[in-house]
Amino acid sequence: MTDMPIDTAPRPDTSRSLWATAMLRLKRNKAAMASIVVLIVLAIAGAFGPLVAPHSYSEVYPEFVKVRPSLQPYPQAEQVIPAAESALRRARVDLGGIEVEDGKVRIPVSSDSRDLDPRISRYLDRSDVFSNAELTIDAADPKKGMMEASVQELYFIMGTDANGRDLFSRILISLRISLMIGALATAVALVIGVAYGATAGFVGGRIDNVMMRFVDVMYSLPFVFFVILLVVFFGRNLVLMFLAVGAVEWLDMARITRGQTLSLRRREFVQAAEAMGVSSGSIIKRHIIPNTAGTVIIYMTLLIPKVILLESFLSFLGLGVQEPLTSLGVLISEGAKNMRNAPFMLFYPAATMTVLLFALNFLGDGLRDALDPKDR
Predict the structure, then answer these.
(1) Looking at the DSSP assignment, which residues form a beta bridge with residue 104?
(2) Contacts for 78 with CB less than 8 Å, ≥ 6 apart
(3) Which is it for the CA torsion 332, 336, 342, 347, positive or negative?
(4) If you count Cβ atoms within 10 Å of the first and of the last residue's Cβ in the chain, which end, N or C, has fewer?
(5) How many Å from the N-terminal Cα to the C-terminal Cα in the chain?
(6) Which DSSP letter does residue 338 get?
(7) Among 162-171, 190-199, 276-285, where is mean pLDDT lowest?
(8) Do 159 and 68 touch, CB atoms closer than 8 A?
(9) Can you supply one Gene Ontology CC term for this chain's record (predicted)?
């Protein structure tokens, strides 16, 4: 009789936790994974884009107002000579034939009444089009001279707004502001709503009734009127936007968490904790809130686009962020006013908002499917 070899190699554990299964299912959802990539790209663009953008979001170019998007540098060839004539109009000199060659402009200047002043070159330097202007006065006749300046090349790949500011840079800063408001206001709603709803659902009884009646009273208050009052008393600033939006959106979070808590409080592990003498606060913190995390995360991904839309609506009404800062709602509002003669001012912010909202909603749908225990 021969001894059979005993397999002592460790066998892989095939069981997976709920979160491991959810992550595996989320990775199989192509729309959700693509949305994660899009959100990461938009978040990086909003966080670091304004730092590396070719123009500041607040820099104004008066000579490039509502210029169309172009991959070619401004000013274009036909714009250089009119820009030079416009810049030297106040210099009170006569201009000869203007020549433009190799990024340089040469302008013969003369005066009939007085000698030329070298300081008139400052008129070109003050322009958005020219730089390093120099005036060479004719030694034989100080009333004549030659002015030379470099033509600056400015790129506006998404055009400029009604004030002459780079639209691309303003979209980048608006992404930062909108995402920051959406994330922080959602965090405020998450903290207040989860704590409030879990406490009301676990304690129950009269305390639950009183707490939920307070939620009903808050629901009856008109949101826009509430924000207008805050703006009147405290002024417009980003902190106010976080408080105003987060102080209203926690109501839905509280109701959802309360409903989940009511079903969890009858579970065996909660009853066992109560039998062991664990305090109510510890049960809520260690057992109730962690077991509502799946539903809360799903609702959070759907709440962020809702908050961004609310902020855009308030900015559209003029109650949002103040200049020179901007948000997607402010840009869309400005674009709507100029959509006839400058449709790109509306198209690019609206397209950015659409991509952002679609990505957040697809991610929310993917998380809902991944965390749904009925589909496991």
Answers:
(1) 101, 150
(2) none
(3) positive
(4) N
(5) 47
(6) T
(7) 276-285
(8) yes
(9) plasma membrane
Cα 105 to Cα 57: distance, rounded to the nearest angstrom: 29
Q: Provide the CATH topology of domain 21-57+163-375.
A: MetI-like fold (1.10.3720)
Arithmetic mean of pLDDT over the chain: 81
Residues of the chain with CATH 3.30.1360: 77-151
Residue 197 has pLDDT above 80, yes or no: yes
What is the per-residue pLDDT for 1?
45
Q: For residue 345, give the nearest of 133, 21, 65 by alpha carbon.
A: 65
The vertex-219 CA angle with 217 and 222, nearest 5°, equals 105
Measured CA to CA, the distance from residue 196 to residue 212 in angstroms comes to 9
Q: CA-CA distance, 362 to 71, in Å (whole number)?
A: 32
The answer to whether the beta carbons of residues 260 and 295 sit under 8 Å apart is yes
Cα separation of 257 and 250, whole Å? 10
Domain with CATH 1.10.3720.10 in the chain: 21-57+163-375
CATH of segment(s) 77-151: 3.30.1360
DSSP string covering 255-305: HHHHHHHHHHTTSHHHHHHHHTT--HHHHIIIIIHHHTHHHHHHHHHHHHH
Q: Mean of the pLDDT values across residues 49-62?
A: 88
Assess whether pLDDT exceeds 90 at residue 282.
no
State the average pLDDT over residues 104-119: 83
* 325 DSSP 8-state letter: -
Dist CA 10 CA 7 (whole Å): 9
CB 327 within 8 A of CB 177: yes
Report d(CA 43, CA 46) in Å as an integer: 5
| Neighbouring-strand partners of residue 105 | 100, 149
Give yes or no for residue 273 having a pLDDT over 60. yes
pLDDT band at 343 (very low <50, low <70, confident <90, very high): very high
| Closest residue by Cα to residue 151 from 135, 128, 120, 122 | 128
Q: Which residue has the tokens 């908002």?
A: 353
pLDDT tens-digit profile of 213-232?
998 888 887 777 777 777 67
Query: Which of 59, 51, 103 has the alpha carbon at shortest distance from 77?
Result: 103
